[in-house]
Amino acid sequence: MGAPTAPSPRNGGKAGPKKGRGGRGKKGKAPIRRKATGAATAAGPASSPDVTQRDTREAGATGAQQRNPDTQTAHYRNGWLGKTAYAALDLGTNNCRLLIARAASDGFTVVDAFSRVVRLGEGLNSTGKISEEAMDRAIEALTVCADKLKRRNVVLARSVATEACRQAVNGAQFIQRVKDETGIVLDVISPKEEARLAVMGCHALLEPGEGPALIFDIGGGSTEVVLVSTDGVVPEILDWESIPWGVVSLTESEPHDEDCADARVAAYAAMRKKVREAFAGFAARVPNDSGDHRLLGTSGTVTTLASVYLQLQSYDRRKIDGLHLPSQALRDISQTLANAGPEGRAKFPTIGTERADLVVAGCAILESIIDMWPGERLGVADRGIREGILRALMASDAKRRQRR
To answer: Do 167 and 41 meet the contact criterion of CB atoms below 8 Å apart?
Structure first.
């Protein structure tokens, strides 16, 4: 289906402060509290002429680096900053993800990472509540995170929760339970903050071009789209929108009938219609005739489809993060998956049974975004909110220490 060509350069970003906390606690032990300031202001297979992979030096928990202009001096390289551990935890509607890093001369070095599917929003669309089973799954994952925060001696952290906790009538009770059982204090962020952090974390992968660019994040319970200007070093947010349709919420709202091909086609069309209607106001505001219509997506949907495009037998972040693929190729893959039953989708090694039920909703959202912003190529980022949080923590801590 395709493969990447030679890499191209990229730039970093920066951010400013906000407070949060992280820590750990177990039964029979007092929870550990960690003060955390936080967040933000605004090589692969054979080559193909349609696909590029940008220079992405971070390689997950292997210790490679991401760039950050705020850490470019010898003082940072050799002093306290390179020895301080920072952490970013993102509890979404579908996944729990943690990233622990230290600052480096041209970005940050990842020292530990964790990701687990918890499906916190399972059933939320019909009940309005986070179920006990979903809470238990999340608590189990967060306990692992708390252990890592302690073992890595993290001194600054920010832990955020998104759409499931925003929507659920028992969201506050769940947040308190997390604090009581793990010591982690979750900050339930707004959709605007979620969008801004995602932009901060991945905008360096935008291709050069004229006019505004569209960055999007397809989550479990919501999808954020952000129109940005790239005239400056750090993108300026021109407009943004958040809709309550993510891969979990859309799947539960519009079940994709697996027994009949015609029913699957109809269900997919209904998904597309719901997303199109939700984005109607934003679509009317965006300039359709300006610039190159650059697209950059950060989410499990785009990384999964990119791995299908490359025909990977197992997911490899180094081959995905920074790819730029033909949008039409991703449309074609989306249509293939939407028309297939669960067994057909699960045959793709990087989808499997775990993602087979939710990937169709992600395809519907992705196609609707391309309809709205018809770029010829689509960038793929395996980074986002956590990286945005880390940049913000490091930048704010550096400024604070320099003022001393």
So the answer is: no
Stretches in the chain below the pLDDT threshold 70? 1-82, 258, 404
Integer CA distances (angstroms), 106 to 60, 65, 73, 103, 220, in order: 16, 7, 9, 8, 32
DSSP 3-state assignment of 16?
A: coil
The DSSP 8-state label assigned to residue 95 in this structure reads E
For every residue of 176-236, which 3-state class applies, written as one string?
Answer: HHHHHHHCCCCEECCHHHHHHHHHHHHHHHCCCCCCCEEEEEECCCCEEEEEEECCCCCCE
What are the b/e assignments for 88-122, b being 16+ CB within 10 Å?
A: bbbbbbbbbbbbbbbbbbebbbbbbbbbebbbbbb
Nearest to 380 by CA among 329, 314, 332: 329
Query: Which residues have a Cβ under 8 Å from the Cβ of 374 and sit 6 or more positions away?
Result: 293, 327
- What pLDDT was estimated at residue 401? 77
